[in-house]
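Weekly puzzle thread! Below is a chain. First person to post its structure in token form gets bragging rights.
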Amino acid sequence: MSLPMIVKTANSRYLGSVIRPTRFRTVLKVMRNLPGAVADYLYDSLRYFRFSSTFYYGTRANRLSRITAMYHSVERGLALPEPQLGFGAQNIAYLVEAIEEYIRRFGVDSSLNPAAGALDAYLAFNKNNNVDPPNRAAIESVLHKLKPIRSKEGDGGTIEILRDSICSATANVTAEFFLRRYSIRQFSDEEVSTDDIDGAIVMAQKSPAVCNRQECRVYVVHDKKLMLKMLAIQGSQGFNHQVNKLLVVTNRLTAFYGMGERNQCWIDGGMFAMSLVLGLHSKGLGTCCLNWSKSAPPDRAMRRLLKLPASEVIIMLIAVGHIPAKLSVARSLRQPLELARRHIINASEIQSGGGVVQVDAPEASST
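Winning reply:
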């Protein structure tokens, strides 16, 4: 038997294959990948510890994120079916203190407008119900300090809308709008309008964000040479030369605090990115989401290339272009509905071990 055959036989016996590895191969794989995995976890963790609001409010952005979370709590309370009179006394005391500290450190600026609006709405709600709320004097004092930047009233709190206004806006949106969105990897030569991209970003800004802490950013890259460098770092191949605009979606860690929010940056960023993609889709543009599941070295390379702030994390890249008259797209077959949903009709269907019993919905009777 030749030496190559002996090596091949030994590999098959002791290592198996990539798809059917032996235990020995698995151990070797763990030993090979463990140092890199630990290094990447430390890379991400240290960034979160350094820039999030978990341990201290070192920057203006840290303090604004905390103020946003607290004033949005007031807005949520006012938006309940039956708000309690004088609710949230402790939270409002913290909010007033946070605003006072912000003013002491950074002065009065328009970023405090929404918080002032929420406090205004809170006072009005209690006054309309003949209640003198806790902390009224402190609220009025801080609102007086914010008078110079109150460009308009009603920029916080709640607004009243009619169901018909929502229904009319969604009347012409069908399932086909969503089902006709594909990942596009073939683009025409037509230039993508900056106005169309800006319009889609405005739509994406309506995405839900934890406690309204909207810290997602979009970098719109026009330069072809820079684009090609970025796509090379991302690993994209085969259609890079056709990409007309390349978007980079980021989120700022300063908006999040507490270890319970260690993954919230990517959750909020993912929802923002999907809204952005659908916004571009509504403009008739093609998009391809390019994931940023990267280890530390390519992340550092992209940061250096774009000179990104250290407090921002990259959520994903999005290739954008006009759709040609005829093109091929990946079929990307979706799983059956039965695998994507679980109906829990009553609590007894939840297993004691934490699993959920699959229960099919009752068949609809024909009419």
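Puzzle host: Confirmed. Bonus trivia for everyone else. Confidence is low (pLDDT under 50) at residues 361-367.
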